[in-house]
Amino acid sequence: xxxxxxxxxxxxxxWASHLEHKLAPPPLLxxxxxxxxxxxxxxxxxxxxADEAQAWLADAGLRSPGQPDFAADLxxxxxxxxxxxxxxxxxxxxxxxxxxxxxxxEQVTSQARLRLEVTAGGxxxxxxxxxAALLADGLAGLLLTIRDAQADGSWDRxxxxxxxxxxxxxxxxxxxxxxxxxxxxSCGNRLKNRNLRARRAQAAEVRNTASGGRYP
Length: 216
What we know:
This protein has helices spanning 28-35, 50-59, 70-93, 99-111, 135-152, 184-210, and strands at residues 3-5, 11-13, 38-39, 44-45, 115-118, 124-127, 158-160, 169-171. It has 216 residues and is mostly helical.
């Protein structure tokens, strides 16, 4: 598999080449990479075009390229991506998922072919095929990764950038777990400056109203 070096000195799989910082640990990294195939800031979408989407999903092991009916799979991938984004948002805002956000995940769980395995060590595991033949199997694998991350406490560290124009999924490694931005130098300062300008404009409006509109 082609690999690319990240900014923190790790070696990343090619399917994570669009990630640069605040990386989640594997296998949660794949969930982060999948959600971030849509970049609202740069207005790019890996899942926008069938050829690029099919190549990325195959590279990530989420779908065999030989499976037919990719149009339906592509729509499911996009829908599940937004459902997972809503799940990550829940880590910060606590808002429950809506029925519309849950529906694509229910479609995955109804279509996926999950199986129980017992290891030589006596552990019972719920698994999907790797790499996945069907997209539903691959996406179900992401849900299993989230389940494991919820159990070990790492899931709560995966968050969305507090800039509503960004919403990039990032992994909060801070001791306080109170990180709010994918990158403070860009989104954090940008939103703080925006809020500061809004407060100043509101204060100016209040002063103008109090003075009877005599000052601009």
